C-alpha cells in the first residue's frame, strides 16, 4: 500500500473512532441516570417488607432536596414506616403517597431512602412513580412506563418509574386487616338516645322524681295544701281561744 493511501486510511479510521466515541458518550449520559426500588426476594402478600429507593442525581449544579413517591394501588401512606434516609430528612404522608425531604444533598450525590411496607398487595409488580426535586427548582419526573419510555419532549431516553417485580404469594398467605384509622373525636350517641329514648339517670328520670312530689291537680306540690290546712287550724284555734277569753271576762 502506498504511503498516501495508508495515511488516508489511518485518518478515516481515527475519524470513525472519534464519531463512535462521541455517540457512545452522548447516549450513555441519560441511560446512566435512573431511579430504582429494590426488595430482595419480595413476594406478593409479604409483610413488613423493606423497600430501598435510589434516585440518581442528574444536575451538575444543584443538590437533591426532596423525593415524592406516588404509591401504587394496594399500598397507602398508612402502610408505610420510614426506616432510614439522608441525614436530617423526614417522611411526610401525602394524599397520593409520601415525601422524604430535608437539607439539599451535595451536587451529584444520589438520594437513597428505605421504608417498610406493612404488607405488599397480591400483584405481579408495583410501580412507584417518583418526582425528584433539586435546590434550584428543577424536577426530574421518574414516571415513565415501559410502553412509554420517551420523555416529555419525545427524546426517547425518558425517565422510567421504579418498578418492583414480585414473586407469587407464599402458600397460605392472606391479606391482613386494613390499617387502623384514627377514631373520630366526636362521641357517638348511645343506643338509647339514638332511638329517641333517654338513658337512665337523664332528665326523664329526674322529672319522674319531681313528679312523685306532686298530685294530679295541675302538678301542685302536696306540701301546699298541707300548709294551707295547718294555717286554717291555727287561725281557727286562735279565734276560739280569743272568744273564750272574752266570755270569761264578761
TrEMBL record:
Residues 103-166 form the YncI copper-binding domain. The chain crosses the membrane at residues 222-242. Keywords: Membrane, Signal, Transmembrane, Transmembrane helix. InterPro entries: YcnI-copper_dom, YcnI-like_sf. Residues 1-35 form the signal peptide. Pfam families: DUF1775. Residues 179-205 have a biased composition (Polar residues). Residues 149-216 are annotated as: Disordered. This is DUF1775 domain-containing protein. It comes from Streptomyces violaceus.
